[in-house]
Amino acid sequence: MRKPLLAVPFASLFLFSFASAQAPPAPVTNLEAKDTPNDRGEQVDLSWTVSPDENRAANPVIGYQILAAPAPDSPFVPTGTASAGSKQATAKDGLKNGKPYYFKARAYAMDSSFAESEVAGPAVPKGQWWNTKPNYTRIFIGMVFLVGAILYNILRAKKKELYIRPIAGINAIDEGIGRATEMGRPILFVCGLGAASDAATIAAFSVLGRVAQKVAQYQSKLIVPSYDPIVFPICQDVVKGAYINAGRPEAYSDKDVFFVVQDQFPYVAAVNGIMLREKPATNFYLGKFFAESLILAETGFQAGSIQIAGTDELIQMAFFIVACDFTLIGEELFAASAYLSKEPEQVGSIKGQDWGKVVFASLTILGVISVFLESKIHFFSLFKKLFVAE
Amino acid sequence: MMRREIPLFITSAVGFIFIIRFFIPHEPFGSMEDTASSWIQVIQAFAIWLGVLNLLKVSLDKIYKKEKGWGYAGIIILSFLAISIAGFFFPFWESQSAGDSYLQHARKFQYPGTSFDWFYTYVYAPLSSTMFATLAFFIASASFRAFRARSFQATLLLLSGFVVMLGGVPIGNVLFSWLPQGWQVSDIADWVRNVPQVAGQRAIQIGIALGIISTSLRLILGVERSHLGGEG
Amino acid sequence: MPEMVSITIAGFLTLGIMSFVYKDNPIYKFCESVFIGVSAGFWFVSIFYQSLLPQLTDKIGLTGELADSALAYYRQSSSLASAQWFNLIAAALGIMMLMRLLPKIGWISRWPLAFVIGSIAGLRLIGELQTNIITQIKESILPLWAPQYVDGSLNLAASVGQSLTNIVLVAGILTGVIYFFFSKEHKGVFGGAAKVGIWFLMVTFGAAFGLTVMSRMSLLIGRIDFLLRDWLHWLG
Amino acid sequence: MSPPDTSTTSSGQGFWEKFALLDRRIIFAFIFLALALPLFYTIRQPIAVSPEGRAYYEAIENLPAGSKILLSFDFDPPSSPELQPMAEATFKQLFTKNCKLVVIGLWPQGPQQAEKALASALLDTLFKDKKLEYGVDYANLGFMAGNENVIKKMNSDIPSTFPSDYKGNATASLPIMRGVKNYKNFDFIIDFSSGYPGTREWVQFCVDRSGSKMIAGNTAVQAPENYQYFHSGQLKGLLAGMKGAAEYETVSNQPGKGVSFMGAQSVSHLIVMLFVILGNIAYFVSRRKR
To answer: How far apart, in Å, do the first and last CA atoms of chain C sit?
Structure first.
C-alpha cells in the first residue's frame, strides 16, 4: 500500500488553528462501505451519519478523513477526505481490485483533535462489465436506434434514389459560379477553421468538388486558402480530381490551392488581403467558422462579392445570415452536401437523421402529454420514468 | 494497404474503443482509452508543429522563387525566428535563479519579465486583440446594412436583435423606465434570450448533433474516406 | 527594454492593424506578416515546453526533473504502469504526422491522423447524443399548464405567464425541428409549421447577433483603453 | 436562406437615398468616438443583475470555506477585456473564502492570462496579510494540448494528464495536489472560455460524465450557446461578457473595470441602434419614392 500522502496536506488545513486543547469531537456513526458501482474498480464508496459536533460553537468538526486497511487489526492508512457536511466519500488511494478492505472515518475538529468511527467492511473493490445508470441505458438505446436507422437508409439509398427536398441555397451555388464566369473574376472558397474530421469540413469537401468541377468547365479561376495543414492537401486532391473529371487537368495549378497559416486572426488577416487584392466575384464560406465569420463577410461585401455561407457553428450562423447573400443553416450544410454529391452514404445519412428527428419530436410530444396524464394512465407514468427520471 | 486500409482500421478500432469504454467500465477498456488519450495529446501537439513548419515551407518557397510579396514572407520568417529564439535560448542572457537546473530554468520561458513574455505582451497580444477588435466596426456596419424591415422574417431578425441590444446595456432600462415592473427592456430581452432563442437553438443543435453523429459513424465504419484525401 | 518603448511598439502595431478598416495599406501588410510569424513562433515554443516536454520526457524520467516521490507516483498509478514504452509510440506517431511535409512519404501521416479521427469520432458520437439529444429531450418535456403558487394560493397571472413560456418553448423546438426535416417538401400544414420554425430561427439569430454587439464593443474598448490609458496616459 | 436584398438602388439624390448608401467608414468613426469619449467620464448607471449572474456569485458564496476549486482558462488575449475582469473578481472572492485554487488551460495562452489575473488579485490589500503560498493555496498546472481529450482524461487521472506544473515542478509534489486524482477531488469547477475547447466541452465531458458542479464565465458571444446548460442545471451559474463581469462586480460589491466600461457600452449601443433606425427610415423613404 502507498505511503500516507494525505497526512501532510490534511494537517496543513489546521495551520491556522491556535485554539488550546478542547473537547475532542464525537465520531461519525453508521459507517458503511461498499464497492463503487459502475466503475473500473479500485474504489469503494463510504457513507455515514455526520458527527453531531459539526455545528457546535467551540472547536467544531471541519472535515473527515477515510482510512483503510486490509484487515481490521492491521494499521489503517489514509485513503480519502471529505469536507464537513458531506455524508459520503469515495476511497481510492491505493486500493486494489479483488482484495477486501476495512475502513474507518476520522472526524477532525478545529484544533486537529479527532475521533475515529467503528470499523466498517469488508468491501471488495471491483470493476463492472456494464454501466447500469439509467442515462447510460438511454444513450445506448438511442445509439443503437440511430446507428440502425442510418445504416438501413444507406443500404436503401444504394438500391434506389431517395428523395431530399431542394434547399434554397443550392441554386445560389450555381448562380454564384455563373456570375464569376460572366464577370471574369475568380471564386474564393474557404473551408473554414475546422479539422479534416469535422462533419462541417467533410460536407464542405463535397461542395468544393462540385464548385471546382463547374469552375473547370466554365474555365474560370478558383482560389482556396487553407487554414489546417491536414485539410490543405485534401483540398488540393479534391480540386485536382474535379479538374480531371471535367477533362481539364492542365488548368489545375497548385498555386491556387495553398496553405496560409494555422492561427485564427493571422489567417483572417491574410484572407482579407486576398479578397481586397483579387476581388473575387463569389465567396464561399463552408465549414466551421468562429469569430472571423463577420470579418470575412464584411470584407467580402466591401470587395463587392456575392457571398454564400454554411456552418454548423451556432453563433456564427447569425452573422452569416445578416452579412451574406445565402446561408445554409446548420444541418442544411450536410443536406446540401448530400444533395449535390448524390452519394448513397450521405443521402442515407440524411434520411437516418430525419428518422432521428421524428423520434425526437414524438418523444417530446409524448413526454409533454405524459406530464399531464402520468397520474391517470400507467403507460405515461412509465414513459416519464424512462425518459425523465435520473 | 499501408496507405488506406491501415488508417481505416486504426480509425475504426480507436473509435470503437472510445464508444465501448463509455458503456463498459471494466478493464482493460479504461486503460486503453487513457493510453489512447495520452497519445492523442502528443499527436495533436505535433499537428500544431506541422502547421508551423508548413508555414515556414510556404514562406521560404516564396522567398526562394522571388514570388510577388516575397518581402512580406521574409518578415514572417524574421518574426518567427525572433520569438522562437527568445523562447528557446533566452536562458543564455537571463539570469538563472539558484538551484535551478538548466531545464528548470528554461521552462520559465514565459515568466513575466522574460523576452518571450515581452513578445507575448507587446507584440502578439496587441496584434491579435486588435485584429479581433476590428469586429466592433464590422458589427456596426453589418447591422446598419442588414437590419432593415424588408420582409416579415427580416423584421423579426431586426426586432429581436434590437431588443436584446437595448436590454443588454444599463441605459436601456433608464430610457424605458416608464415600462411597468417586470416588463423592463432587460426583462423582455431576457425572455427573448431564454425562451424563443433557446427553442430555436435547440432545434438547430439537434439537427447538427444528428449530422455529427452520422458523420462520426461513417468515419468509424470507414465509409467516409474524404479525410484521407484522393490519391493512393 | 524600457516600458515606454515597449508600449509604443504595441501602440504602433495596434494602429497598424486598425488602419485596415480604413483601407488596405502597406503598414497593415507589414503588421499582418509580423503577426503571422510571431503567432507561429508562439505556438512552436509553447507546444514544446508545455505539451511535448511534459508528455514525452517527464513521465518516463528522461529529464530527471521530477522528484523521486513523484516518479514513484506515476509508476504506481495503474494507467501509467507501462507508459514508458507506450510514450515512445506516441512520439513515433507524432513524427509520422510531420512526414506530411515530405511529398513522397506524406501518406504515412494518415496513421496518426486516423488515430485522432477515430478518437474524435467515438467521443462525438456519444457526446453529442448525451449532451445535445438525450438531455435536450428531457429538457423539452415541459408542462403546458404550469400553475404557480404564491404562499399556497394559485397566482393566475404568473401561471399563465409560465405556461405561455413553456408553450412557446415546446412549439419553437418542434417547428424548428420540422424546418430541418429534409424528406418532405415544405407544403400544406407541414410547410406552415416549417415557416413558424423559420420565424423562431430568425428571432434566435437576431438575439444572437444583438448579444454579440456588446462582446465586440468590449474588445474595442479594451484596445482603446490601452491606447489612451497605457500608451498615451490620457486617462487617469 | 437569403436575407433581404442589400443593393439599394438609388435613382434620386435626396438625403435619405444617399444615407442608405453611407460610406461605412463614417459609421466606424462614430463607433470609435462612442467608445473612446465615455472613458474620460464616469457614467453612473444602475446595473441590473441577471439570474445567471446572481447564481454564479451565490454558487461561490455557498461553497464551504477552504474548498478545492479547479479553474480552467480557455481564452487568449483578444477576449481578455471581457474575461479578465471576471477572472480577477472570481479569484478575489475565492481567496476571501480561503479556497484552494488549481488553474489549468486548454488554450496555450490561458495559463499566462491566469498568471496575470492571479498577480492582480494577490496585489489586493485584502490578501497581503494572508501570505498566500504557491503550491499550497494555489497552483498553475499550465497548458495541455488535446482539447476535449484532456478534459476526459482528467476524469480518470489529473496528475498524469498534467505531469508538471507551469513552473516545471512535478504536479504530484505540490501540497495542493496531494490526494487529487480526478474531478471528484474538487468541490467545484470554474471555466473561463471564449470558444472551442470551452464550456460546451467541459459540460459534455466533465459535468455530464463525472457529475461535478460547474460555473462558467463566457464571452458575450459564446454565452447564448451555453444558456441552455444553465437552464438544464448542467451549469450552476454563468457570466456573460463584460456585462456579466459588471454584474458580478456589483453583486460581490467590488466595482472594477467591468462596471466602468459599461458606460462606453451604453453609448456605443445607442449609436449602433441610432444607425439602424436611420437606416430603416432611409429604406422606407427611398422605397416610397421609387
So the answer is: 24
Measured CA to CA, the distance from residue D112 to residue D106 in angstroms comes to 12
Mark which residues 5-64 of A lie under 8 Å from D by CB.
5-6, 8-9, 12-13, 62
Claim to verify: residue D206 and residue D282 sit in the same structural domain = no
Rg (CA), chain B: 27
Residue C81 neighbours by CB under 8 Å, 6+ apart: C75
- Note the maximum CA span of chain A: 93
**Phi and psi, residue B92, nearest 5°:** -65, -30
D148, D240, D264 ranked by CB distance to C221: nearest: D264
Task: Tell whether C89 is covered by a domain.
Answer: no
* Bridge partners, residue A369, by sequence: none
* Residue written as grid cell 449530422: B211
**Cell numbers standing for residue D72:** 480552467
Instruction: Tell which B residues from 133 to 192 touch D, by Cβ distance under 8 Å.
Output: 133, 136-137, 139-141, 143-151, 154, 157-158, 162, 165-166, 168-174, 184, 186, 190
Strands A101-109 and A114-116: antiparallel
Distance CA C40, CA A266 (A): 9
- Please give the share of chain A, as a percent, with pLDDT higher than 90: 36
Tell me how many residue pairs between chain C and chain D have CB atoms under 8 A apart. 158
- With CA atoms as reference, the chain D residue closest to A4 would be D179
Both D107 and D175 in one domain: the answer is: yes
Side-chain half-sphere CA neighbours of C39 within 13 A: 27
Do residues D180 and D90 share a domain? yes
Domain count, chain C: 2
Q: Is the ipTM of this complex over 0.85?
A: no
Q: Tell me the domains of chain A and their CATH numbers.
A: 7-123 (2.60.40.10), 134-149+348-387 (no CATH), 162-341 (3.40.50)
Q: Do C206 and A318 touch (CB under 8 A)?
A: yes
d(CA A255, CA A240): 12
Contact C65, D168 (CB under 8 A): yes
Instruction: Kindly report the length of chain B.
Output: 232
> Residue B128: closest CA among chain D residues belongs to which residue?
D78
What's the pLDDT at A3? 37
Query: Is the torsion defined by CA of D88, D93, D94, D95 positive or negative?
Result: positive
Query: Whole domain around residue D129: which residue ranges?
Result: 51-261
Its domain, for residue C171, covers: 143-236
Which segments of A234-340 are extended strands (E)?
257-259, 282-288, 306-311, 326-329
Residue A196 has pLDDT above 80, yes or no: yes
Residues 6+ apart with CB under 8 A from B122: C6, C7, C9, C10
Across the interface, of A129, A197, A301, the residue whose CB is closest to B219 is A197
Entry pTM: 0.84
| Cβ-defined contact of D208 to C130 (cutoff 8 Å) | yes
D134 contacts in chain A (CB < 8 Å): none
pLDDT computed for residue B92 by the predictor: 52
Dihedral in degrees, nearest 10, Cα atoms A74, A78, A84, A87: -60
The rounded distance, in Å, linking the Cα atoms of A311 and C205 is: 13
> Could you tell me the sign of the dihedral formed by the alpha carbons of D43, D47, D53, D55, in that order?
positive
Q: What is the pLDDT of residues D39-76, one digit of tens each?
A: 888 777 788 888 889 999 999 999 888 889 999 999 98
Instruction: Give the distance from residue D266's alpha carbon to the nearest chain A alpha carbon, in angstroms.
Output: 22
- Is residue A164 within 8 A of residue A335, CB to CB? The reply is yes
Binding partners of D (≥3 Cβ pairs within 8 A)? A, B, C
| Exposure letters A182-211 (e unless 16+ CB within 10 A, then b) | eeebbbbbbbbbbbbbbbbbbbbbbbbbbb
Residues in chain C closer than 8 A to A165 (CB atoms): 182-186
Report in angstroms the alpha-carbon separations of A193 from A197, A231, A311, B111, C219: 12, 9, 11, 30, 21
